[in-house]
Amino acid sequence: MKPIFIADIIDVHTSKGSAINKFCETLSIPIANYIAIDDDANDISMFQACGYNVAMQNALPKLKTLADYITLDNDHDRVAHFVLQKLLV
Predict the structure, then answer these.
(1) 16-87 under CATH 3.40.50.300, yes or no
(2) Which run of H or E residues covers position 44?
(3) CA distances from 76 to 49, 71, 72, 81 (A)
(4) pLDDT tens digits for the chain (89 residues)?
(5) What DSSP state is assigned to residue 28?
(6) Of 57, 46, 65, nearest to 82 (Cα)?
(7) What are the two backbone dihedrals, phi and then psi, of residue 49, each rounded to the nearest 5 degrees?
(8) Per-domain residue ranges for the chain?
(9) Residue 19: helix, strand or coil by DSSP?
């Protein structure tokens, strides 16, 4: 098996939170209407910005503390589970 190397290269002033803020500002949509769904440290700023946050079962503990709902893990249709449990009721 070949080793895998993964790297995120971003500007020091860039984050998912700043990106979603800019997106909402551009479209004149209240950020409180957005749902963040994710699992890692680079998602903290997005969770702090959005109105509702969903973390995966296997998310970092810090992210789980910011979550309004915890869904299934990455291997078990996490977004579909959230939609079925919370949005289509």
Answers:
(1) no
(2) helix 44-49
(3) 26, 9, 6, 8
(4) 677 777 667 777 789 999 999 999 999 989 988 999 999 998 999 999 999 999 999 999 999 999 999 999 878 888 888 888 888 86
(5) T
(6) 57
(7) -90, -40
(8) 16-87
(9) helix
State how far the Cα of 56 lies from the Cα of 59, in Å rounded to an integer: 5
Cα–Cα distance between 12 and 32 in angstroms, integer?
A: 25
Pull the structure tokens for residue 59: 């998310």
Q: How far apart are CA 1 and CA 48, in angstroms?
A: 38
The whole-angstrom separation of Cα 14 and Cα 67 is: 22
| Confidence at residue 87, expressed as pLDDT on a 0 to 100 scale | 83
